Amino acid sequence: MYHKNRGLSHRELFYYRFYSPLVRNQIEPLMFKTLIKDRFLVTIVSVLFCTALHSQPSNDTKLLEELIGSLNEGVNTRDYAKVLDVFAHPSALIYSVHNGVFAGTYASESNTAQGLADFIQTTDKEVRQNFENIRVSIVSPGRAVVTTHYSVLLDGENSHQGDEYYSAIKTKSGWKFISLMFTLETF
Q1: Residue in 6, 134, 157, 114 with CA at minimum distance from that of residue 61
Q2: Could you tell me the sign of the dihedral formed by the alpha carbons of 73, 74, 79, 85, in that order?
Q3: pLDDT tens-place string over residues 58-104
């Protein structure tokens, strides 16, 4: 059994109290070293555990990255249904803002998810969209913002690029985008 104040067994406590100060002076440094070593180990293990937790993306983060991937696949394969499926509703707004010379003006192509799906299905050009630097930020349970840099090639030639900002909500059927705002820069 251990003494509650020092973590010593009754036998150790007896020796501690009744032996000479010389013995006591030998026991205390040993106890102090053990205590420091134990605290140090606990601290190191705690820091490593917390770092590991923080560095692992959440399941929601993975799902949102998959949602962006699904949109990219739908655009690149001209899959009308897949493009619409990533949005909560066909009327979800897609809003573009020009950069550079036309900074602050809005593109006439600003549209809805339905408009994007229609364009992908009807265009006679080969469209290739690439995403880089995808970042997911969970704002609160059920709400997130996804940002990415994109570039678009039309018929194999650079067309435009910019940054995209998706607002997402978690629905009964999973994560869905409710809006998209993107900047538009020509190469």
Answers
A1: 134
A2: positive
A3: 799 999 999 999 999 999 999 999 999 999 999 898 887 766 555 55
Closest CA to 68 of 55, 87, 54, 92: 87
Q: How far is residue 174's CA from residue 86's CA, in Å, rounded to a whole number?
A: 10
- Spell out the residues 6+ positions from residue 10 whose beta carbon is closer than 8 angstroms to its own: 1, 3
**What are the tens digits of pLDDT across the range 3-48?**
455 566 666 656 555 554 555 555 555 555 554 555 555 566 666 6
User: End-to-end distance of the chain based on CA atoms, in angstroms?
Assistant: 76
Residue type, 59: N
Whole-number Å distance between alpha carbons of 145 and 134: 11
Query: What confidence tens digit (pLDDT) does each residue in 37-62 have?
Result: 555 555 666 666 555 545 445 799 99
Q: Which one, of 105, 101, 79, 83, lies nearest residue 92 by Cα?
A: 83
- Residues 111-127: tens digit of each pLDDT: 888 888 888 888 888 88
